[in-house]
Amino acid sequence: MFFDNLANLPKIAARTSCTIFAVPPDTVLEHPTTAKSSADGTILSPKNTLYLHPDESKTTRLISVEQIREFLELTNSRETRDRFFVITPADAMNDAAQNAFLKTFEEPRDFCHFVLLTEQPGALLPTILSRAQIFFPRILNTLDTPPKVNAKTPAAKAKLLAQAKELISATPRDLPKIAADLAKSKTKPREQALDIVATTIDLLYKSYFKTGNRKFLIKLPAFLKLYDALEKGGHIKLHFVADLC
User: I need a labelling partner for 99 at 20 to 30 A (CA). Which of 26, 72, 131, 194 fits?
Assistant: First the structure.
């Protein structure tokens, strides 16, 4: 989905429990208030908006699971008006932090809205992507340039990337053979399938950012659904064919 104006971000975020905006991480939800910064990277705003950044005292520039857990504790208060919990850049969360966040936003409290700001949506876990609403700016200069490489995510191996490209271009007739080859693998077929699908999702996001072509976005929901099904133990061959056809 798309938005036209950064001023619309709070209004869009208020409609759902978790929204991902593909915008620069220094983007601020435009409330007419002045924020106050705390030492651990959390910024508290009088307008019921809380920001979580990487801890500046650390050299890694990552958002740790400990930071996420402390941040999520702030959702426990009883509220009768909207509160926005902004994580930026969301791709700075390590895997443990993302998993901890996932457990919380799957059962959101009333009036709590999570907002993830990142120029690299593909760096987030597919399980987060499949459960959140993702919005891209309709007009933004960054759409004309490739996204930055995520320093904490190693480049996909050549074989894995080739498999992802093959999966993107596969026709319904090709899918049964691709699925059968994965299912009969002797070395952790499910892990291999998840790696290929995750790489495919990342490649689709990067291709969209590089070209601005919506055909890459159109393909995303099916792959997000497939990843979710495989992670939950779904039948590899069945879901590759059923979810991607």
Answer: 26
pLDDT for 64 equals: 93
| 179 and 64, same domain (yes or no) | no
Query: Sheet of 42-45: strands edge to edge?
Result: 2-3, 133-137, 18-21, 112-117, 83-87, 49-52, 42-45, 36-37
Domain limits for position 126 = 2-142
In whole angstroms, give the CA distance from residue 52 to residue 66: 12
Q: Show the DSSP H helices in the chain as ranges.
A: 9-13, 65-73, 95-105, 126-129, 158-169, 175-183, 189-211, 215-231, 236-244
- 20, two tokens: 């991902």
Predicted TM-score (pTM) of the model is 0.65
Residue 146 has what pLDDT?
Answer: 36
Mean pLDDT within 144-172: 67
Predicted local confidence at residue 144, as pLDDT: 35
The reply to whether 164 and 235 lie within a common domain is yes
Confidence of residue 101 (pLDDT cuts 50, 70, 90): very high
Residue 104 near residue 72, CB atoms below 8 Å: yes
Query: Would residue 121 count as lying in a domain?
Result: yes
Domain co-membership, 172 together with 73: no
Number of domains the chain contains: 2
Secondary structure percentages of the chain, helix, strand, coil, to 5: 45, 15, 40
More confident residue, 115 or 155: 115
